[in-house]
TrEMBL record:
Molecular-function annotations in GO: 2-dehydropantoate 2-reductase activity
Xref: Pfam families: ApbA (PF02558), ApbA_C (PF08546)
Protein name per the record: 2-dehydropantoate 2-reductase
UniProt xrefs under InterPro entries: 6-PGluconate_DH-like_C_sf, 6PGD_dom2, ApbA, KPA_reductase, KPR-Related, KPR_N, NAD(P)-bd_dom_sf
Keyword annotations of the record: Coenzyme A biosynthesis, NADP, Oxidoreductase
Function: Catalyzes the NADPH-dependent reduction of ketopantoate into pantoic acid.
Chemical reaction(s) catalysed: (R)-pantoate + NADP(+) = 2-dehydropantoate + NADPH + H(+); (R)-pantoate + NAD(+) = 2-dehydropantoate + NADH + H(+)
Pathway per the UniProt entry: Cofactor biosynthesis; coenzyme A biosynthesis
EC number: 1.1.1.169
Segments crossing the lipid bilayer: none
Source species of the chain: Halarchaeum salinum
All residue ranges annotated as the Ketopantoate reductase C-terminal domain in the record: 186-306
GO BP annotations listed: coenzyme A biosynthetic process; pantothenate biosynthetic process
Length: 316
């Protein structure tokens, strides 16, 4: 496959590197010192599934990539609209854009630009970050992608595209990653959204790792409340789950070996970087108000983090 990774950070560079190991033609789209390092030395991945180095083309100009089968779209949510505007040069009519971003707003933004039929909604479960320019550190998580053809929530899921089979098979053949296709794309997106709002919100608001949150009775009750509220908003928007997201995530997180983990929202908050608060708790609050759903826990976290998020915004 010809694959472009738009936003070759910890997640994008990891998956792109793994696919390049299998012989797929991967091009990284990045910027700054990370881009310079990718150009000079390729990407070095320090992974619990095995270290490796691959040398892939890297650029900051999407128009220079050429047409590809698939764009792995991994930019921060606040960059979605600007990045989407430059996708057209990489897409054929049968190409696809797979969003692996935080939040539930990105797919609609992409669909408005490139057409719903070329958008795949996706989630991934992985702990992978940029350790330094050109170096990705993969420390855990199943490294699993769940994706599906995007569509209006009122419509039946469309037929699974042949390209989805190709991508699924490529992921399954690669070392250190896997993939599953879903016909429940909206439920899949909201399922992870509920978890992120709890995990990111509580680690950022308390400045404490997950283990402390889990061990503190009052804070763990708030963690549960956040998941419950986001799921209630999903139900109000017409999302139907074939499972109980609240029980699923509470059971999974209590049994997971991630006591020292924080979140990317916590990292951005504590390092003075632009935060994805609007795409997470801001979006959940806005949607809750539109649907008439009470979300006091999510509102409180949004209010607590808002001053720092505003302070971290880049100067105009």
């Amino acid at each position: 496959m010809d694959i472009a990774v738009y936003g070759a950070g910890g997640v994008g560079a990891y998956y792109g590197g793994r696919l390049a190991q299998q012989g797929h033609d991967v091009t990284f789209i990045a910027r700054g010192e990370h881009l310079q390092a990718l150009r000079e030395d390729g990407v070095t991945v320090e992974s619990v599934a095995g270290d490796f180095v691959v040398d892939c083309p890297a650029t900051d100009d999407p128009a220079a990539v050429g047409e590809v089968d698939l764009v792995l779209f991994c930019v921060k949510s606040f960059d979605t609209a600007d990045a989407a505007a430059s996708l057209d040069a990489m897409l054929r009519p049968d190409s696809a854009v797979l969003s692996l971003q935080n939040g539930v707003d990105n797919e609609d933004v992409l669909a408005d630009v490139v057409g719903t039929e070329r958008v795949w909604g996706g989630v991934t479960y992985i702990f992978s970050t940029i350790k330094e320019p050109g170096v990705v550190e993969h420390t855990g998580g199943p490294a699993r992608i769940i994706f599906g053809q995007y569509h209006d929530i009122e419509d039946e899921p469309p037929e699974r595209p042949a390209l989805a089979d190709d991508f699924h098979d490529a992921c399954e053949a690669a070392t250190g990653m896997s993939a599953d296709y879903t016909n429940s794309v909206h439920a899949t997106l909201w399922d992870k959204f509920a978890l992120i709002c709890a995990q990111a919100g509580l680690t950022a608001a308390t400045r404490q790792p997950f283990g402390v949150i889990n061990d503190t009775e009052e804070t763990w009750a708030l963690y549960r409340r956040v998941i419950e509220e986001v799921v209630a908003v999903a139900h109000a928007e017409g999302v139907r789950f074939g499972w109980d997201p609240v029980t699923k995530w509470l059971d999974a997180m209590e049994s997971m070996d991630n006591e020292d983990s924080y979140s990317s929202l916590h990292y951005d908050l504590t390092h003075g970087k632009r935060m994805e608060l609007d795409a997470l708790h801001g979006s959940a609050v806005r949607r809750a108000h539109e649907q008439g759903v009470d979300v006091p826990a999510v509102e409180a976290i949004n209010a607590i983090l808002r001053p720092q998020a505003d302070a971290n915004e880049p100067a105009p």
